[in-house]
Design goal:
Strand order of the largest sheet: 2-6-10-16
Structural class: mainly beta
Largest sheet: 4 strands, parallel
Number of strands: 16
Distance between the termini: 63 Å
Helix content: under 10%
Strand content: 15-25%
Radius of gyration: 20 Å
Number of helices: 1
Length: 193
């Protein structure tokens, strides 16, 4: 004898609401142009990159010997030759950068505007980097804490410049001159280094 029981009151319920202003239909591919004309951009209100755990611009691989549970000026991620992320980047966990290249006048890893790409960006005045700083111990790239390079007792949600100072850090790019400026911002929950 088999019995089926429905226990709906103990199950969590979720309500996701889609943007109802959009027309329903099938997404069809279209050609886009790539280039380096940063003045010609297309507004993109969506998320370009979502990172469910921590984001490392450089590998957290303890020099090929595993991962560090905590990051600091001594226990650091490897250097990376990556230089930019186009559009809006959302990071559920923490952000650590350690750039090796001297692109963008040695300012480090650039969020939002790219030197070469589709030039899809959020509307001017929007965030291009959001870091929640949440604990990500249930993911494969967890970091317990990241400690400020100048203040080893200060826990941070965003950390950069392990080896090369400003070259290893990250920044948000604003574009244009005069009255024709697009500007962007970053929102980071918690302390930054």
């Amino acid at each position: 004898m088999m019995t089926t029981v429905a226990v709906t009151s103990l199950l969590p319920t979720y309500n996701a609401k889609a943007d109802t202003s959009a027309e329903p239909g099938i997404c069809t591919p279209k050609s886009i142009s790539l280039g380096d004309d940063v003045s010609a951009s297309t507004v993109d209100s969506g998320v370009a990159t979502y990172v469910g755990g921590n984001m490392y611009v450089g590998a957290n691989n303890q020099n090929n010997g595993g991962t560090y549970a905590n990051l600091s000026s001594v226990q650091k991620i490897d250097k990376s030759y990556a230089v930019e992320a186009e559009g809006l980047t959302l990071v559920n966990g923490k952000l650590a950068t350690n750039g090796a290249k001297t692109s963008w006048s040695s300012n480090g890893f650039r969020f939002g505007v790219v030197g070469f790409g589709a030039q899809f960006r959020p509307q001017s005045g929007s965030d291009v980097l959001v870091v929640a700083g949440n604990s990500t111990s249930n993911t494969s790239n967890s970091t317990g804490n990241m400690w400020d390079a100048d203040n080893p007792s200060k826990s941070v949600s965003a950390l950069g410049g392990f080896d090369n100072g400003s070259t290893g850090r990250a920044f948000v790019q604003n574009e244009g001159t005069g009255n024709n400026v697009t500007w962007y911002s970053a929102r980071i929950n918690g302390n930054t280094s």
